[in-house]
Amino acid sequence: MASKQSSAAKPRLFTPTFLVAWLINFSMFLVFYLLVTIMALYAVKEFSASNAAAGFASSSFVVGATFARMFSGWLVDSMGGRKILFTTLAVIAVTCAGYLVAGTLVAVIIVRALHGIAYALASTAVMAIAQGAIPSSRRAEGTGYFTMGNTLATAIGPALGLAMSSSLGYTSLFVFSLALAVVSLGLAFTLPKPDTNPASNASKKFQLSDIVHPTVLPIGSFMLLIGLAYAGVITFLNQYSVQENLTTGAGFFFLASAFSMISARTFLGRLQDHRGDNPVIAIGVVCYVICLALLGIATSDWMVVVAGIFSGLGYGTIAPACQAIAVRCVPAHKMGTGISTLFLLSDVGLGLGPILLGYIASNSGFAMMYLGLSALTLIAGIYYIFIHGRKPQSKPHHVQIATVEKID
Predict the structure, then answer these.
(1) What is the pLDDT at residue 66?
(2) What is the signed CA dihedral for 143, 145, 148, 149, rounded to 10 degrees?
(3) pTM of the model
């Protein structure tokens, strides 16, 4: 009887604002994953780019995103997420059209960078809108459900992007990406108007803490290391699988990853809300170490698929858990800055990854690269213990106190 009353007392999670934000976020991430897995190969095939230049064509998106992250939190906090979201979704639609007319590698790189800038601002805005709609007592659970959109995009995007580019051509892929961007812009107009007016923050001067919020810096630096490891998967898995004749396994890697992510999200968010951060981060780090090690020693397709399962349980667990931590670390009026700080540092890892890891892979091979990333992830897990895991903020009691304070 008591459990039924407790369940009935739970604040509502799936509100119209949350659901619309979820759909916009899914569409944006789907466009990202449609393009990121084919861009390096596109640069080589269409413009005869070198491996380094092709890697930069792919990572220029993240370079633009990293630049925009420095200001995205401040803009969202001072101007409001809704206004920023409208503007940047329109820019994303324009850049998706730009892929259709970019006739040189330099033009592609410029379009990618502009797309990255708009994407960074839009993703910060839509996350802030969603976090504002999530009840504080269900913060990690709601964040987990929200980032399922990222998970589905991860599962659908790479495989669909490769299939469309190989069977229908790159033009069809770019047109489809443009259509998704236009749909996202249309969805933004259905978002309810916020209850609060951000105009009171509009006059606040830009400060260094608006780039990197000090309280989010520790967990953000942890995500930088994890993002560097993740870059090795999303950027080079396709090339690695072709080289090692593991293309069938690579084709199912992201599907397996998505399946395990979705399965884990149904309970890991609630675990974090009730038991604290450490158990969830520990699960994520161990699983991701196993994923990368399996990729490093893979000799059969089934090993790549199993690695995909552990990727979902690894990176797919760590990312939303760290987002919930970041939101909890800042006051409500600095939510945009807290989110952008985490995204900024994660993007630094994703941006450096293709360049740095491309150099390592060229000299040592992909297998050694993945084994090295497995060791890096283990080091990141140890680093987490010192920068957050031993603090009261990571413990269940502190999570429950923070929840009450947010509600008040």
Answers:
(1) 80
(2) -80
(3) 0.75
Question: Is residue 334 in some structural domain?
Answer: yes
Amino acid at position 40, single letter: A
Residue 5 forms part of a structural domain: no
Given this model, what pLDDT does residue 137 score? Answer: 75
Mind listing the pLDDT tens digit for each residue in 177-231?
Answer: 999 999 999 999 988 776 555 545 554 666 666 677 888 999 999 999 999 999 9
Write out the residue range of the structural domain in which residue 362 sits.
14-190+210-407
CA torsion angle 77 109 367 379 (round to 10): -20
DSSP 385: I
Which residues, 6+ apart, have CB-to-CB distance to 91 below 8 Å?
Answer: 114, 117, 118
- The alpha carbon torsion through 270, 383, 235, 176 (nearest 10 deg) reads 30
Number of domain units in the chain: 1
Contacts of 304 (CB under 8 A, 6+ apart): 241, 246, 249, 250, 252, 253, 294, 295, 298
What is the C-alpha separation between 64 and 106, in angstroms, rounded? 14
- For residue 158, report the phi and psi dihedrals to the nearest 5 degrees: -60, -45
Write out the two tokens for 90.
């329109």
Closest CA to 237 of 187, 305, 313, 183: 305
Instruction: Tell me if 173 is assigned to some domain.
Output: yes
CATH code of the domain in which 43 resides: 1.20.1250.20
User: In which residue are the tokens 């690579």 written?
Assistant: 250
For residue 341, being part of any structural domain is answered with yes
Task: Quote the tokens at residue 112.
Answer: 């990618």
- What number of other Cβ atoms are within 10 A of residue 6's Cβ? 9
379 φ/ψ angles, rounded to the nearest 5 degrees: -60, -40
Single-letter amino acid code for the residue at 150: N
**Distance of alpha carbon 256 from alpha carbon 248, whole angstroms:** 12
**Size of the chain, expressed as the number of residues it contains:** 408
Q: CB atoms < 10 A from the CB of 3, how many? A: 7
Give the per-residue pLDDT at 297: 95
Q: Report whether 283 contacts 317 (CB < 8 A).
A: yes
Give the DSSP per-residue string, 361-376.
HHHH-HHHHHHHHHHH
From 285, 205, 254, select the one nearest 29 (Cα to Cα): 254
Q: At what angle do helices 217-243 and 51-79 cross, to 10 degrees?
A: 150
- The two three-digit tokens of residue 403, written as one number: 């929840």
Dump strand ranges (E) for 66-126.
none
Q: Is 105 within 8 Å of 154 (Cβ atoms)?
A: no
The span from the CA of 140 to the CA of 328, in Å, is 10
First to last CA, the chain: 27
